[in-house]
């Protein structure tokens, strides 16, 4: 009898342990449902053919994302779908780019309509609805050069550069030496950068899920430090800045989190080309920003090789 009771106790303990174990695993990245992600590329005055596969690999290697890619090609004033990855409807190919967003949790733009084509009004409206209804959007580097004339897109990205942007597009946004956020409405073009250098990134929101646990300062590899960016700058949190010592002598925003309706946008100005995507400062912030945009949380750990303030860390 005693032995039977002991046996039952042992079975109960094992049962509880296995329940505990499975509930613990829920918080681990690999056990969570994958974030269905769409990268859009195909027109950009940057090396999108090189960077998209690297962005995709960074996302998928984390264990947290499944990634599809739609590549667009300009056709007169519109964009047609040139290629799609295997999981997507092959009937899209050859037709004008039309709404596909709802099947994804997250859209990443590596797209800058540099050749001057436009998405249709229907596609724009669908994308606005998609994000404002609570989905995620990541705007990566020169994607913030795109669509100057599309007001809602500029609200999503908070600020942009080039493409003729000036004081009519919104204020310059930066942080001054006293740590105060400045919205500067003075006249001038939006978007520039000096020569590439390995600049220091300052964490301005250490309690934000994207930035929590990252060092107060960490070093990025040689990259363009975007400055003089301007736009609506509404509902925006400046997550990180870099000091533009060679140009504006301002603390220029490098990473932004934007609320757009119920949706979340992560904006990284970093990552000019494939070389910059090897920098752990880029990889760590891109992954965490993408997870936050899609879910509102970050479960991905701070990498062990996160750089300190002195030297960048490059992953070959
Ligand atoms: Zn660039």
Number of β-strand runs: 12
Provide the CATH topology. Answer: Rossmann fold
| CATH H-level homologous superfamily name | Class I glutamine amidotransferase (GATase) domain
Q: Biggest sheet, strands in spatial order?
A: 3-2-1-4-5-12-11-10-8-9
Distance between the termini: 64 Å
Structural class: alpha/beta
Shape: globular
- H and E string: HEHEEEHEHEEEEEEEH
Q: How many domains make up the 3D coordinates?
A: 1
> What portion of residues is helical?
10-25%
CATH architect. name: 3-Layer(aba) Sandwich
Number of helical stretches of at least 4 residues: 5
Overall pLDDT score: 93
The kinds of small molecule bound in this structure are: zinc ion
Features:
alpha/beta; globular; two-stranded antiparallel sheet; 316 residues; single chain; 25% strand; ten-stranded mixed sheet
Walk me through what this model shows.
There is one protein chain. This protein is α/β, with parallel strands linked by helices and 316 residues long. It has a single domain (32-295), classed as Class I glutamine amidotransferase (GATase) domain (Rossmann fold), CATH 3.40.50.880. It has five helices and twelve strands. It has a ten-stranded mixed beta sheet, with helices on both faces. A hairpin with a 2-residue loop joins strand 11 and strand 12 (263-268). The longest helix is centred in the N-terminal third of the chain and has 24 residues, at 2-25. It is globular and about 55 Å long. Zinc ion binds next to loops.
């Amino acid at each position: 009898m005693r032995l039977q009771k002991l046996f039952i106790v042992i079975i109960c303990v094992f049962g509880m342990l296995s329940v505990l174990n499975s509930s613990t695993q829920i918080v681990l990245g690999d056990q969570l449902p994958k974030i269905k992600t769409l990268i859009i590329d195909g027109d950009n005055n940057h090396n999108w053919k090189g960077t998209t596969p690297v962005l995709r690999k960074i996302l998928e290697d984390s264990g947290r994302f499944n990634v599809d890619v739609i590549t667009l090609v300009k056709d007169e004033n519109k964009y047609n779908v040139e290629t799609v990855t295997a999981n997507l409807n092959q009937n899209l190919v050859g037709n004008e780019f039309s709404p596909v967003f709802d099947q994804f949790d997250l859209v990443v733009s590596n797209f800058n309509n540099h050749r001057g084509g436009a998405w249709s009004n229907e596609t724009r409206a669908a994308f606005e609805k998609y994000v404002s209804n609570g989905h995620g959007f990541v705007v990566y580097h020169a994607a913030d050069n795109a669509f100057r004339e599309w007001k809602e897109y500029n609200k999503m990205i908070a600020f942009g550069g080039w493409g003729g942007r000036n004081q009519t597009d919104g204020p310059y946004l930066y942080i001054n030496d006293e740590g105060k956020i400045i919205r500067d409405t003075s006249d001038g073009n939006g978007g520039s950068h000096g020569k590439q250098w390995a600049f220091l990134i300052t964490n301005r929101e250490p309690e934000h899920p994207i930035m929590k646990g990252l060092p107060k300062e960490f070093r990025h590899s040689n990259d363009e430090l975007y400055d003089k960016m301007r736009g609506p700058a509404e509902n925006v949190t400046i997550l990180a800045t870099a000091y533009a010592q060679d140009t504006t002598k301002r603390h220029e925003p490098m990473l932004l989190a934007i609320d757009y309706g119920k949706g979340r946008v992560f904006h990284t100005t970093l990552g000019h080309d494939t070389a910059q995507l090897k920098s752990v400062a880029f990889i760590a912030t891109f992954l965490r920003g993408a997870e936050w945009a899609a879910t509102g949380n970050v479960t991905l750990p701070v990498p062990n090789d996160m750089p300190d303030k002195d030297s960048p860390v490059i992953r070959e």
